[in-house]
Amino acid sequence: MGRVVIFGGTSEGRHLAEFCVRQGIPAAVSVVSDYGKSLLPESPDLTVVEKALSEEEMIEWLKAEKPELVVDATHPYADKATGYIKKNCDLLGIQRIRVVRTESSLAGEDIVVKASMEEAAAYLAGQDGKILLTTGTKDLDAFTVIPDYEERVFARVLPSLKSLEKCLSLSIKGRHIIAMEGPFSRDMNQAMLKQLGARFLVTKESGAAGGFEEKVEGARAAGAQVVVVGRPKDEEGISEEEAKKILSCRKDGRRKLFLIGTGMGGPGQMTGQAKDALRQCQAIFGSERAAKEAAEEAPDASVIKEYEPEKILSWLEDHPQTTRCAAVYSGDTGFYSGAQGLLKALEEKNNGQWETEVIPGISSLSYLAARLKKSWQNVFWASSHGRQVQIGSLLDQLASHPAVFLLTEGKESVNCICREIEKEEQKRKTKYRVYTGEDLSYENERIRAGRPGEMAVEEFSRLAALWIEKEDGE
Length: 474
Description:
Shape: elongated
EC number: 1.3.1.54
CATH class of the largest domain: Alpha Beta
Keywords: Cobalamin biosynthesis, Methyltransferase, Oxidoreductase, S-adenosyl-L-methionine, Transferase
Helix content: 25-40%
Structural class: alpha/beta
Strand content: 15-25%
Radius of gyration: 30 Å
Number of helices: 18
Strand order of the largest sheet: 6-11-10-7-8-9
CATH superfamily of the largest domain: HUPs
Organism: Candidatus Lachnoclostridium stercoravium
CATH architecture of the largest domain: 3-Layer(aba) Sandwich
Largest sheet: 6 strands, parallel
Pfam family, one: CbiJ
GO molecular function: precorrin-6A reductase activity; protein methyltransferase activity
Distance between the termini: 65 Å
Number of strands: 21
């Protein structure tokens, strides 16, 4: 596979760099300190840049590296860096994934949440007692507004020369500097707070990787209040484990194509497996409606409104840098779906280049059956999409099946079919009952039932399905 760039300086970034080394994936890692560099493994496949890059320096570095993938594993609070990374990747057309930490619960009377370091410092300035700061040196200046901060504040920082110099420049020195690498256990946090006689512990909402829960538990055990600077809101991304899966799929050089059934299209219709796959994709193919809905799960992916196999394959040939994408289909991939056509085309032209995975969805048949509270296992099903349907032949199936399910096409399709059923009633001296499902799963979903003649004069939407049965006693 091609080169990967990782913006790190976090435990997640370090773990992903170590993963690349183990898997033999060439990678370049950006960290902001010598200490961060010292924690990374040495390998001919791994290069490390130790510098806080400006926006201009970052784009020049990315141009030089020419990565296939950029992994943003920067700290949850590094919102400026994340903004630069996104902007530059969009500009250069490089796929980017954001690795985020699972947020922790902030419930508890002994926890105070502040929106910024400045707000946290202002709060502490009005309190009495010693303070253990665990927020690093970047924002240490904010806490110099606290009266007698040189005596009240104890800074727990990384054991690097840069960290020590920062503390000393602010007159934080001697036993007020605790240079240690975390995360720390509950007992270690408790012991440290007790030893210092601290009434407050200040922390970022750093998730499990930052030892947040252990800080809270340790502070509670020591009788100290926790002052939390809440992380920036509305951050989207994937977990460290999901990032490893993406890297693994790229390792063997094969490109991956998901064929995904998205269900009926309404809220909650898409399966968790489908959502996970879409979040990994650089490009999404499908009809306008299906692709638009799928793109909500992958906002950084390109949306190509194509569903014909030849056009999809042509686009992929013209975009070799796209290594992970999805073709999406309404309903289920195995029920009157275009997925089979794409699979056949891939089989003919693949040459081993693409790995495929089919992810099923909720079909219109199973959905309508559920809404009608009926079983569909013995139902005869058919579709009028792009084909002529003989209504008489369909009704013949009711001799051996409890019902007929029919996908329709176009606004007038249901009316025409119901008129044909009414004619067959007169010929066969048999009564039928028709159920219609329109815009299934959407807010304007409508399900109706009636005799064919009654239904023939009603108005229906373009998206409709029929369920046909004999009347009781027929």
